[in-house]
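Hi all, long-time lurker, first post. I run a small reading group and we've been trying to get comfortable going from sequence to structure in the token notation. Rather than ask abstract questions, I figured I'd post a concrete chain and ask someone more experienced to write out its structure so we can walk through it together at our next meeting. Sequence below, copied exactly:
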Amino acid sequence: MTEDHAPHPVPASPLAGSDPGEPLRVLFFAGSGRSGTTVINNILGQMEGVFAAGELRYIWQRGMVEDRLCGCGVPFASCPVWSAVVARAFTGRPGINPGKIGQRLLSRLRMARVPLMLGRRMLGRPAVAWHHDDVLIGELYRALLVQTGQRLIVDSSKLPPYGLLLSALPGVELYVLHVVRDARATAFSWRRPKRQLDFGDDQLMPQQQPWKSSLLWLFWNALTSMLWRRGGGQYLRVRCEDYVRDPKATMTQVAARVGRYPARLPGESTTTVHLQLIHAIADKTERLHSAHVGQLPDREWRKAEAAGQRALVTALTAPALVGFGYPLLPKASGSNNLHGRANGKTA
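-- Answer (accepted) --
Happy to help. Here is the structure in token form:
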């Protein structure tokens, strides 16, 4: 990527996060995968005072160990923002093993541990048992705010147990954005071949069978609702389909929830958004310097998904579908997709 197509490095600031007593404000995307959060994350990252970091739970393995591409299009170790953040967070701390931290996170946050987490939470204890890695995780978030000079980190990690871990870190003020997408659209998306963009080649993302993606959709979305729906002003649920219908209104609501009131949002119209490259971990946005992305209704799955698969997904997820306001018998429609097309490419 040429210099002209890379975002400018974010300068260090002595203001944000420099006071240990100042809260670390984090907007955490919670829910299941393939819910259409990529564009929402990008839009938030263009607002003043906000740093859209992508899926930060992957930074240890995908960033520091595997050196995958940052959302700006260069390898993690070469990204001026992330290299500065890592240096600020861990200089003077020899012996840190990012690979081990990443492996321990996978173990600590796995689904089988959720009942234990809920039990600990009911007893008034941190849901995710404390580990010395949590000190390093907290220092990473603090260094990110200090280095970038922003006031809010957007973390699109989605996994609810990771949100529980973040909420227990000293000084963290957690806001939860629960993004929901129709389970049948999600199952269809998991079946489609998609490039794993942070590899920088033609490797594909993992695919899932409809029964598996449906059960994961049900489990993670139900858990997110149970954990945070009574969180008052620090919880907001957004349906992906509502965002596609009116991006400006949805993003205004999200921004207001975290105390941001931008003079303008990166939208060209009520149905078109303007995207730029951001420094996001596990970013899934095509490497477009400046894209006008038309948000089209999420209808392709209604026409292309096999009737048997759609019926299976509906049966497995019916109670939650109804609870989130989705019809059990959606009408077939055209072949538009969620993200539309930008500059001749699917965004």
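A couple of things your group might point at:
The beta strands are 24-30, 50-54, 152-158, 172-180, 235-239, 267-269, 272-276, 290-294, 341-342, 345-346.
The mean pLDDT is 82.
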